[in-house]
Amino acid sequence: PADRRLRLASCAVPLDVAWHGRAKASVRVACPGPQAWQIFIALRTPAPAERAAPAIARGDPLTIQIRGRGFTIQKPGEAMEAGGVGECIAVSTGRGSETLRARIERPGLAVIPAG
Half-sphere exposure (CA, 13 Å, Cβ side) for 49? Predict the structure, then answer.
């Protein structure tokens, strides 16, 4: 439920939710029904102190796993950029090797899904 001070009518149809503004710093929530209304909700971005520290820093050694259906291959590698858990970063398996994109699963482990 919304803040009762807004005095919004109940919406009989699904709400329409969309980004608002070029910076996507707020969303527009609208009721397109017979008693139409819309509100704009500002999104709070975390302050620099609230952001989680990267799980992996650039240059950190890590295990790179390629996971597929019924198999896992792993090789030591190096992080080419920093990132947090769930983020995709560039990784390398050695000098002169091609840079790959892998998702950080936990500190020290990056995974490339196969298939």
Answer: 0
**pTM of the model as a whole:** 0.54
- Tell me the one-letter amino acid at 18: A
Distance CA 84, CA 69 (A): 26
Among candidate residues 41, 77, 73, 46, the one with its CA nearest the CA of residue 59: 77
CA 38/CA 21 separation, integer angstroms: 15
Question: What averages of pLDDT result for each successive group of 10 residues across the chain (115 residues)?
Answer: 75 88 82 88 65 84 90 93 92 88 94 84
The β-bridge relationship of strands 61-68 and 88-92 is: unpaired
45's CB contacts (< 8 A; 6+ apart) are: 25
Residue whose pair of structure tokens reads 């259906």 in the numeric block: 69
Distance CA 77, CA 62 (A): 5
Rg (CA), the chain: 22
Alpha carbons 29 and 43: distance in angstroms, whole number: 13
